[in-house]
Amino acid sequence: MQVLSVNTARVENFIATAGERLESAIRKRARSGPVGVGPLGLEGDEQADPSVHGGLSKAVYAYPQEHYSFWMTVRGQAKVEGALQPGDCGENLTLAGLQESQVWIGDVLRFPDCELVVSEPRYPCFKFNAHMGFNQAAKLMAQSGWCGFYLAVKREGTIAASENFELIAGPREVGIVELFKAKMRRKG
């Protein structure tokens, strides 16, 4: 398992496909070199709405790189131009080799200089639709279960692209996919 990219963003205003102005830090971009990891997340990263993003339990958001080909395909079908790059699903960590079906609440991701604990799935909102460029993106995330997962900081330090990490199993009582689908069923 490997970190392909470490991504951060500052809060910015952007125009959604319907022409509305949004304030968000969803447009994450890759950073080079080691990035500091503190209790509230990565150095240089911000959240526009702390009521739903960030905080101690949602300090870092990880997303599997394996899902990017799906998003490129559906964006193409929706006639959205432009390639996706790491961070375009709003994630701080673009990971290879670890998908939601392999992750449980309480699992630990041990990196060379820090440790992060899986805390909950990511639940998409209208800003995900706006950023991806079509109105069905959140619905497709809900249907696929490809939501990624939030991480709390267990041990502060740094993290960098190309680092390998290991998954230390937690109590294995609640899986990310099952929790995500249960909550999305209640919302729908």
Low-confidence stretches: none
Radius of gyration: 16 Å
- Placed side by side, the strands forming the largest sheet appear as 4-1-8-7-11-10-9-13
Structural class designation: alpha+beta
CATH architecture descriptor name: Beta Barrel
Number of domains: 1
Task: Tell me how many strands there are.
Answer: 13
Which CATH class? Mainly Beta
CATH homologous superfamily (4th level) name: PK beta-barrel domain-like
Name the shape in a single word.
globular
Produce the secondary structure layout.
Blueprint (H helix, E strand, L loop, with lengths): L1 E7 L3 E4 L5 E4 L4 E3 L3 E4 L2 E2 L17 E5 L3 H10 L15 E4 L11 E3 L4 E7 L4 H7 L4 H8 L4 E7 L1 E3 L6 E3 L7 H12 L1
Description of the molecule:
Helices cover 20% and strands 30% of the residues. It has four helices and 13 strands. An eight-stranded mixed sheet has the order 4-1-8-7-11-10-9-13. The longest helix is centred in the last third of the chain and has 12 residues, at 176-187. The protein is globular.
Quickly list its features:
single chain, 188 residues, alpha+beta, M1 Pyruvate Kinase, Domain 3, eight-stranded mixed β-sheet, three-stranded antiparallel β-sheet, 4 helices, globular
